[in-house]
Please model this.
Amino acid sequence: AETRQREKGSLYPVWNHGETTLGWPDYQRGKIAVIFATLFSAPAAYSGGAWDVMSYHNPIEAHQLTSQQIDYYHQLCEEHPDKFKLIYTRRDLSEVLAPYEQDVEGEHPVGLVLLLEGAEGLDSPERLEEYYERGLRQVGPVWAGTRYCAGTNEDRPFDKEGRALLEVMASLNLPLDISHMRESAALTAMDLYPGIITASHANAQKVTGNTHHRHLTDTVIRRLQERGGTIGVVPFNKFLIPDWSMEGDHRERVPLERVAAQIDYYCQMSGNSQHAAIGSDFDGGFGYPNIPLEMDTIADLQKLDPILTKIGYTAEDKNNIFHSNWKKHLENILPE
Model:
């Protein structure tokens, strides 16, 4: 509410397709213990306009923007240690999760895991080594367009440089996030990559009713689950029904049951609750009112609990979906 009040009358809600769904009180009310803190800048061809200061024309600019964002997260945690903590290691993860798992009352710091969304701006794959030392712990090689492989809006083969990127990632035990990969790229990546694979924020084509390349095909879902991957469901109305309009559509069309249906689809495909999770993508690109009817902020993800219970999910299942699946993923990728 405080952030929305500050942004009232500005163009921020216009640029971001809605009002913010995030804020410190909302993290606490929603018991949000850990988030993937995104490092993102768009190629100039996909810039949102003159206001978009996080777009680049070349790898030098991209590196500068990424470095600034890493510096920002470090500064945020240094200036507000009671609110945020960067997660570098399993020990950091345990420290962040402990008060939530032990039901300790009061406010607790939110853990930040740095995720690079779109590696097109790297001047070389080896640049990842520097970012890793500064806290990077997960990489999604593509976004809309890429020089490595096929992305959401552009198609191309998985080339030599893309393979070199995967080799550097594997040497650092960085998980491969296929969220924005087209089917061809995702399948090739899963053939090539020996490390951990995930989709931090991606919905199923079949449930969404939309065959856009941004969503996962059944073939990709099966392969990802066979590799032990976790998939985060996105509570974005445009990713929940095929014909949502960002210009004043009726929220009644998208109840929170739509999110539960995505979760259930992943669970039915795997035969268990060990691969589905939440990947809100609330850090940009959309906000209120382009989220399900019952939701106002990220805190309202808790409202999924009774919906999942109603369709047959046990307490253990729900704990997997809300907590354990991402916890296991992070324990597998983080150093001691």
